[in-house]
Design brief:
Distance between the termini: 31 Å
Strand order of the largest sheet: 1-3-2-6-7-8-9
Oligomer: single chain
Number of domains: 1
CATH class: Alpha Beta
Largest sheet: 7 strands, mixed, barrel
Order of helices and strands: EHEEEEHEHEEE
CATH architecture: 3-Layer(aba) Sandwich
CATH topology: Cytidine Deaminase, domain 2
CATH superfamily: Cytidine Deaminase, domain 2
Number of strands: 9
Length: about 170
């Protein structure tokens, strides 16, 4: 099973965006380092200004995602790479939908993405809660052999435990 270590700044970015768009889906790219079974997420991007948010779907601003990838590559001194994406499920569970599976499959097959096993984080949001709960965030990793997103272990890193440079996306 894959273990995903989540930087506190990345967690705060996901929580901020999820709370801001708690009634509709939102999301963004994930960046970090690691190999197949052990990944570290050091930064999470937002949806971008031209993103489309709906109650049951989300289309990111592709230009903003590309800019974030370039920014992370440069500012992270080529230590970090694109790992996948995060998104919300308003009024739902943090489990993959059929659309999530299809998106992960397409990402894994897209040579331009060059990501055989994309990481997908799903955050549940609720209209009556302005705060986003950590227990409502789940990690999933694409498994080609199963042709499915499989659960991954998600571990929040404390600020004191971080041993990589801080990288904030705005």
């Amino acid at each position: 099973m894959t273990t995903v270590w989540l930087d506190p700044n990345a967690r705060r970015q996901i929580a901020r965006e999820a709370a801001r768009f708690r009634l509709v889906e939102t999301g963004g790219p994930l960046f970090g380092f690691g190999e197949e079974e052990r990944l570290t997420v050091v930064a999470a991007g937002g949806p971008g200004p031209k993103a489309r948010h709906r109650p049951m779907s989300f289309v990111p601003d592709r230009g903003a995602v590309t800019e974030a990838i370039d920014f992370v590559w440069t500012e992270g001194e080529r230590r970090y790479r694109y790992l996948g994406s995060w998104h919300t499920h308003p009024r739902g569970r943090p489990t993959p939908s059929g659309r999530d599976r299809q998106t992960a499959r397409e990402m894994s097959e897209d040579e331009g993405v060059a990501l055989a096993r994309p990481l997908i984080l799903i955050q549940s949001t609720w209209p009556t809660r302005r705060l986003v709960r950590d227990i409502d965030l789940r990690a999933h990793h694409w498994d080609r052999a199963r042709d499915d997103l499989v659960p991954a272990t998600l571990i929040d890193v404390r600020d004191a435990e971080r041993d990589w440079p801080i990288l904030e996306l705005t």
